[in-house]
């Protein structure tokens, strides 16, 4: 069975269980508080979440890799369209949710929550913040309707809207208005709401 290990309110693992809900896949959600226990670190030495186990000896880190894995193994699914231009845009934005958004937010969260008082403001922090803000403007410019790709939900909607949870929720930053409206639409989906409950408690 698919098992998703995550922080109890972690948005990256939420991506994965939300996708399971959209695809109708059975899964088990295992929640942790920070810091993860030694048993988890033995399974995944970097100690970050989410991590996904599945039948057939599968153990995979990285939330975006997990999303692509589920789409490939349990698809075909409209979440990863087959038409080349749609597929390309969905893949671009799904990867960007971590490579150009979430990955740059981690140093910002480190500075906000862990850095000593005198070291919270620095050049790297400003660089990451400006890069994320610029990417959000670009991503917003691609929103041409209710979804990022065509007329239906794809992995891109799941991946990007959950990154915005870190930007707004953990970092307290403003989300550009059309991305904020998209995020609200996403949060109204029954599959999103079921997934949020799965990781709302340890
Ligand atoms: N690129 C990774 C990032 C993983 C990551 O940084 N996860 C955060 C929680 S959302 C975490 O585990 N932070 C605590 C730590 O790294 O010790 C992914 O998408 O899975």
Give a written overview of the molecule:
It is a single chain. The chain is α+β, with helices and mostly antiparallel strands and 202 residues long. It folds into two domains: 2-77 and 191-198, Glutaredoxin; 84-189, Glutathione S-transferase Yfyf (Class Pi), Chain A, domain 2 (Up-down Bundle), CATH 1.20.1050. It has helices spanning 11-23, 38-43, 63-74, 84-113, 123-141, 155-170, 177-187, 190-198, and strands at residues 2-7, 27-32, 51-54, 58-61. It has a four-stranded mixed beta sheet, with helices on one face. Strand 3 and strand 4 (58-61) form a beta hairpin. The relative contact order is 0.16. Residues 7, 10, 12, 47-50, 62-64, 98, 102-103, 106 line the site of glutathione.
Helix content: 55-70%
Number of separate helices: 8
How does the helix and strand content classify structurally? alpha+beta
> How many strands, what sense, and barrel or not for the largest sheet?
4 strands, mixed
Pick out its properties.
202 residues; alpha+beta; Glutaredoxin; Glutathione S-transferase Yfyf (Class Pi), Chain A, domain 2; 2 domains; 4-stranded mixed sheet
Short description:
The chain has 202 residues and is α+β, with helices and mostly antiparallel strands.
Which secondary structure elements does this structure contain, and how are they paired or packed?
Elements: E1 2-7, H1 11-23, E2 27-32, H2 38-43, E3 51-54, E4 58-61, H3 63-74, H4 84-113, H5 123-141, H6 155-170, H7 177-187, H8 190-198
Parallel strand pairs: 1-2
Antiparallel strand pairs: 1-3, 3-4
Helix pairs in contact: 1-3, 1-6, 1-8, 4-5, 4-6, 6-7
Glutathione is lined by residues 7, 10, 12, 47-50, 62-64, 98, 102-103, 106.
């Amino acid at each position: 069975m698919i098992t998703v290990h995550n922080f109890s309110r972690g948005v990256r693992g939420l991506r994965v269980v939300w996708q399971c809900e959209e695809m109708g896949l059975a899964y088990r959600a295992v929640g942790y508080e920070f810091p993860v226990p030694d048993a988890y670190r033995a399974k995944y030495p970097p100690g970050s979440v989410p991590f996904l186990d599945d039948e057939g000896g599968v153990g995979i880190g990285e939330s975006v890799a997990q999303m692509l894995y589920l789409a490939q193994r349990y698809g075909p699914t409209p979440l990863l369209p087959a038409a080349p231009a749609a597929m390309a845009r969905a893949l671009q934005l799904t990867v960007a949710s971590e490579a150009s958004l979430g990955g740059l937010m981690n140093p910002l969260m480190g500075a906000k929550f862990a850095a000593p008082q005198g070291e919270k403001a620095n050049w790297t922090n400003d660089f990451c913040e400006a890069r994320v803000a610029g990417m959000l403007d670009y991503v917003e410019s691609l929103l041409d309707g209710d979804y990022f790709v065509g007329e239906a939900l794809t992995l891109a909607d799941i991946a990007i809207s959950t990154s915005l949870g870190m930007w707004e929720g953990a970092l307290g930053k403003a989300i550009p208005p059309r991305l904020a409206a998209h995020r609200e639409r996403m949060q109204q989906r029954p599959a999103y709401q079921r997934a949020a409950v799965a990781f709302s408690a340890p």
